[in-house]
């Protein structure tokens, strides 16, 4: 079984990470995430069998997680999105940095990303994102700008709700420390603007000091046309 690739210690780390965020999920995360966890039966017992998770996920939206080693380069990542596949790190973070990791591990990907992909609108957006980004694979600067859009939305977006700001980004959702930081008064929270985002550089080794706030998830799902207009306005 795929599950056997992880040690008893790995499963214990998963349980520690999952349990640490249990009491806060309802107050921090978007409902889509909570529904996805339940639908995919992702829980605290240990690292789930990815085959079982994929069976449920494919029945819902046609997506699947695929174990990978190390970072996936941008072009291949976009190609995976276009094919309804999401890379899942085949390791779990070191206990010493268990509440935050700059590398995408199994907790970041399987816990942080796959539950969102159980939502059809979100899943469709991610596939469309990959399809559009691939059109510019021979334009390195534009590819970089697509990476920035992915970073500040799918990884690190906040959404305005009647109950207050909530977390949509998986990079936040999968980190206990990042969740607390993102919803505190410490980061600079900007109104969502695709032209600002495409120019905004980011680092993966620090807590994110700049975040973008969506008025709704529909604002994200309808942003790609405006994003491409910005690209065309500065030339390809």
Structural notes for this entry:
This protein is α/β, with parallel strands linked by helices. 50% of the residues lie in helices and 12% in strands. The protein has 13 helices and 6 strands. A 4-stranded mixed beta sheet has the order 4-3-6-5. Helix 5 (74-82) packs across helix 7 (120-134). The protein is globular and about 55 Å long.
Produce the secondary structure layout.
Elements: H1 8-20, H2 25-28, H3 31-40, H4 50-61, E1 64-68, H5 74-82, E2 85-89, H6 106-111, H7 120-134, H8 140-155, E3 157-161, E4 164-167, H9 170-173, H10 176-182, E5 188-191, H11 194-199, E6 210-214, H12 217-221, H13 224-233
Parallel strand pairs: 1-2, 3-6, 5-6
Antiparallel strand pairs: 3-4
In terms of structural class, how would the helical and strand content be classed? Answer: alpha/beta
Compressed to H and E, one letter per element, the order equals HHHHEHEHHHEEHHEHEHH
- End-to-end distance, in Å? 46 Å
Give the beta-strand count. Answer: 6
Task: Write a concise synopsis of the structure shown.
The protein is an alpha/beta fold and 236 residues long. Helices cover 50% and strands 12% of the residues.
Features:
236 residues, 50% helix, single chain, 12% strand, 13 helices, alpha/beta
